[in-house]
Design brief:
This protein is α/β, with parallel strands linked by helices. It has helices at 16-28, 46-50, 60-65, 103-116, 131-139, 151-159, 161-166, 186-193, 207-212, 223-240; strands at 4-10, 34-38, 76-77, 84-87, 119-123, 142-147, 173-178, 199-201.
Length: 245
């Protein structure tokens, strides 16, 4: 493998997909060819973030089921950046293919994609049984773990602690706090988890509205999105080992 592999992980409703898609946007502005891979085997959600369509001859299951010397052809264009491509279930997915995915298929796919792209960002699942997520966590050199303060987030963090310890992935984790929307106190969450957070993402009230419109937060220029983008730049700097070229 020749590319950097970044996993974006967290509990349900932690903002993983929002963060993963926007981090990929930030990385793509650094003259890096970026591939964004979804672990969602039920439906294609990344195309929602970019306002794109994934035809049946492209997408995650094609990449998994075929020996792809040109795996980049299975990725879809993001539309926002010429350097960003994404891989998710096709838009009109009607099969039950999710039950047939094996760990070996996923490893082969990620290894092939790591040759085609400079950076891979894998949008992980909260469930440890997801094969794309499991292999992604194992192969990643950096794991960005998202936390949206809540009781359920604390329970998820506690629930995966043995998994993190057994796989020795704690040293790869960067813990990132999503600023609360007023429903839960972040200081209480810090005390409950005992974690140290490397970055804090600001709350963006219009996030859902922009996502449903296919507009990445990173490319939207209102104040809240600019503040969100500044934190993404700092995280991208850490991943790339410096600022923009």
């Amino acid at each position: 493998m020749s590319s950097k592999i970044i996993a974006v992980w967290g509990g349900s409703n932690s903002g993983k997909s929002t963060f993963a898609s926007n981090l990929a946007c930030a990385l793509s502005t650094r003259d890096q060819l970026v591939g964004l891979i979804s672990s969602n085997l039920v439906f294609g959600e990344l195309q929602i973030f970019f306002g794109q369509n994934v035809p049946p001859d492209k997408g995650l299951f094609r990449a998994l089921s075929e020996d792809n010397p040109n795996i980049g052809e299975k990725f879809a264009e993001s539309g926002e950046s010429k350097n960003l491509f994404f891989l998710s279930a096709p838009t009109r997915y009607t099969g039950l293919l999710c039950d047939t995915v094996t760990l070996a298929q996923v490893e082969q796919m990620i290894n092939a994609a790591s040759v085609a792209f400079d950076i891979l960002v894998i949008d992980e699942a909260a469930e440890l049984t997801n094969p794309v997520s499991s292999v992604g966590l194992w192969l990643a050199e950096t794991i960005c773990t998202l936390h949206r303060p809540s009781i359920s987030a604390q329970m998820w963090q506690q629930g995966v602690s043995d998994f993190v310890r057994e796989l020795h992935i704690a040293e790869k984790q960067i813990h990132i706090l999503q600023a609360p929307d007023g429903e839960f106190d972040d200081q209480t969450y810090r005390e409950m988890t005992g974690l140290s957070f490397s970055f804090e993402l600001p709350y963006v009230k219009r996030a859902s509205e922009l996502q449903n419109a296919g507009t990445p937060l990173y490319f939207h220029r209102d104040r809240a999105c600019r503040d969100y983008g500044k934190v993404l730049e700092q995280i991208a700097d850490r991943i790339c080992g410096g600022g923009k070229p």
